[in-house]
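hiii, so i know i said id send this last week but things got crazy w the move. better late than never?? heres the sequnce for the chain we talked about at the cafe, plus the structure i predicted for it. fair warning i was half asleep when i ran it
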Amino acid sequence: MLAIHTKGESFAAGWVEYCRENRIPFKEVNCFSNDIMSQIDGCIALFWHWGHTDYRANLFVRQLIASVEARGVLVFPGTTTCWHYDDKVGQKYLLEAVGAPMVQSYVFYDRGQAMRWLDQAKFPLVWKLRGGAGSQNVRLVRNLQEARAIVRRSFGRGWRSSRFHALREKFWHFHRRPGLGSFFDIGRGLGRAVIPHPVYREQSIERNYVYFQDFIPENDHDIRVIVIGERAISIKRMTREGDFRASGSGVIIHAKDAIPEDCIRVAFDVTKMIGSQCCAFDFVRDGSDWKIIEISYAFSLAGYIDCPGYWTSDLSWHPARVRPEYFMVEDVVSLLKAKNILAR
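okay and structure toks below
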């Protein structure tokens, strides 16, 4: 029997749907319960999709996953898949360790060292907090004065993610696609700007480190590749007018011909090297090469429903309806069958 935390993020509904359609026994569990270990008695796998803003999950999720794995239960996402989730500093170390082609990144834990490095740095640079998605907590730093101010704050009062980021995003999407739905979204965003959601009230302060990446110019898009087992799906994301960031723009091209095969190949190779069940990559072009900006186990499903198919690890193309959540369960079930843990 599979255990699925059904009150999580969007993957959960697809996991349940797949199990019902394929008559795979499962039970709903609550990973926030004190008795979660008892709840998974008799289960051979646990599925839990948690979001990067879930402050409660982030208190214990990695420890719970490691503990469930120690019990001999397969977990999606497992430790090697998710330990670096929403942690750009952790991703830097991991990608460097396996020699992945990545945008050069720099992290400092000492204010003086950071300030001395800035004196010889080339601008502009991209500054990021270690967490955040959809271009949140990312800023283009154009000169030494701006960079020094960031370092002083990073080693002083620190940073919180802006609760106004979501409101700005709603204005952008209304501007791009006006309608009643996006108009009412602005109203809800104004309300949350005045009365913050618990996500923002409960955030910890980010301080005592600073993280920069090289800025790669002349990119009006990035390439997002998601590898799930032996399959890869991909989209091309355009930047917004006057902005260097593509993530969160909502301007997406799904055509197969828009995706460079080099990105697919590298994504498969790196996923294998890091032992990940599922990994989403953001690529930008640096001259003639494609380089990784960051990675993640989780992603928003909405951008991929129009993908016309997927690649397999031999780079063959397969036209098909794409359901990433189905792929995840299929891989876990196949592994359990291969180990004779689940009946064939």
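btw Residues 180-194 form the longest helix (15 residues). thought thatd interest u
miss u guys!!
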